[in-house]
Write a structure and sequence with these properties.
Elements: E1 2-6, H1 10-21, E2 25-29, H2 33-40, H3 51-60, E3 64-67, H4 70-73, E4 79-82, H5 97-109, E5 114-118, H6 126-141, E6 147-151, H7 161-166, E7 171-174, H8 178-187, H9 189-192, E8 198-201, H10 203-234, H11 238-246, H12 267-280, H13 286-298, H14 301-309, E9 318-322, H15 337-347, E10 351-355, H16 360-367, E11 372-373, H17 377-381, E12 386-389, H18 401-407, E13 412-415, H19 422-427, E14 431-433
Parallel strand pairs: 1-2, 1-4, 2-3, 4-5, 5-6, 7-8, 9-10, 9-12, 10-11, 12-13, 13-14
Helix pairs in contact: 1-3, 5-6, 10-12, 10-13, 12-13
């Protein structure tokens, strides 16, 4: 079976590489020639642990290929996965222009049966639009060629994507024909041999599952951040609260960590899109509107703490920032809390010195040299008036508190991810401010 995957962003590249790793012949397509040239040379354009090695291995095995034209391979493939971007429009809705252009390209160029699978995160009802776009192009050509449309949402966590794909919690596939069902079952057979569930649904339900999953996780995060803020006011410790409720089997322990808000390419976009879908269908999703509002407020929390600590006198202060990416093990800074904090600190007259293991180039691409980029953790906090922990990279988990106390101008830590210990920091003469206690 031969597969084409359109879009070599995070989802498309991980999907294509992992499918080729189980023996399928995969061609990844992207109109960005520079990116394709990098990939043809075995260079991965995104940071994801283990991906570049897997990519190179499958290229050497001649199972993984790259190109810039779907038209050139459409006659040689059985399945086309659409993994192009769906960025949010100004009203929060998902921009489907790239998804529909893939569908039109398939309709314009197909000469035999094709299964077109939407891998991108798209609103409910997108499959109907995709089908109509393909059919419209076939009608223009005056030809009748069978095709199917399916929905196969992704559930990849940045930083752990290969494991998520190769050992999935579940694989969700929405189909409306036996032929499409059988093809998708064959593609995913290697992934379910060890008991990972393959769930077939109708197409609309598959589209809804993806948004609902991300919205639920975002809700848990914002809920715990709300609780954390209340804990600070009443004298409780959110970490103890988390442990207390996480042992309840009805609740579970995942996504209950208080912090400074979620970011990335999925949660913010998908919550907005689901809210918009609700409004389009006369259903106001009030809980998700609150989830979004709480998250935006939480991104500024560390700034408010620093501002309070210095009684509003931040002009001229040097702030050390550990972490820039929205989460560890990625260079992704989309909707990252660090960007909000940097803006507020600079506006208040602060100097910001930052260090991140992989995201500094991406930060420089986004904001230029508004901040100072440091070579390591120690360089970041030396002479600083405050240290701000933003992303919980592993190398930040143990700080030399003696060095912090000695080299900082003012030994104070604002911990946005609750990875340090208050008693230990205080014992070294460091003021310490976590989230929710």
């Amino acid at each position: 079976m031969r597969i084409a995957i359109v879009g070599t962003g995070y989802v498309g590249l991980v999907t294509g590489t992992c499918l080729s790793d189980v023996g399928l012949d995969v061609t990844c397509i992207d109109i960005n020639e520079q990116k394709i040239n990098l990939l043809k040379n075995g260079i991965c354009p995104i940071y994801e642990p283990g991906l570049e090695d897997m990519l190179q291995n499958n290229m050497r095995a001649e199972r993984l290929h790259f190109g810039t034209s779907l038209e050139e391979v459409i006659g040689q493939v059985d399945v086309v996965f659409s993994a192009v971007g769906t960025p949010p429009d100004e009203d929060g809705s998902a921009d489907l222009s790239y998804v529909l252009e893939v569908a039109r390209t398939v309709g314009r160029t197909m000469s035999q049966y094709v299964l077109l699978v939407t891998k991108s995160t798209v609103p409910v009802g997108t499959a109907r639009k995709v089908r109509a776009a393909v059919q419209e192009e076939l009608d223009k050509r005056g030809v009748s060629i069978e095709f199917d449309v399916a929905s196969n949402p992704e559930f990849l966590k940045e930083g752990d994507a290969i494991s998520d794909f190769m050992k999935p919690d579940r694989i969700v596939v929405g189909v409306d024909s036996t032929r499409a069902h059988n093809i998708m079952e064959r593609i995913y057979k290697p992934f379910v041999l060890n008991g990972h569930p393959l769930i077939f649904t109708d197409i609309c339900s598959a589209e809804m599952i993806k948004y609902t999953a991300n919205a639920m996780l975002a809700t848990r995060i914002s809920f715990m951040n709300d609780i954390a803020n209340l804990c600070e006011q009443v004298g409780a410790d959110v970490n103890m609260v988390r442990r207390g409720i996480g042992t309840d089997s009805r609740i579970g322990s995942k996504f209950l960590y208080a912090g400074i808000g979620y970011g990335g390419s999925c949660f913010p976009k998908d919550v907005k899109a689901l809210i918009h879908t609700g409004e389009e269908n006369g259903c106001s999703l009030e809980i998700l509107k609150s989830v979004e509002a709480v998250n935006e407020q939480q991104k500024s929390l560390l700034f408010r703490k620093i501002e309070k600590y210095y009684n509003g006198n931040l002009a001229g202060k040097t702030i050390a920032m550990l972490g820039l990416s929205f989460k560890p093990n990625t260079d992704d800074m989309r909707e990252a809390p660090s960007l909000v904090l940097i803006d507020k600190l600079l506006e208040a007259g602060c100097t910001v010195r930052a260090y991140d293991p992989v995201a500094m180039d991406e930060c420089r691409r986004r904001i230029g040299d508004k901040i100072t980029y440091c070579r390591n953790v120690n360089e970041t906090f030396a002479g600083a008036d405050a240290l701000m922990l933003v992303t919980e990279w592993s190398e930040f988990r143990i700080l030399d508190f003696d060095k912090v106390k000695k080299e900082m101008k003012k030994a104070v830590i604002f911990d946005g991810r609750n990875i340090y210990n208050r008693e230990e920091a205080n014992a070294h003469g460091i003021d310490y401010f976590p989230i929710g206690s």
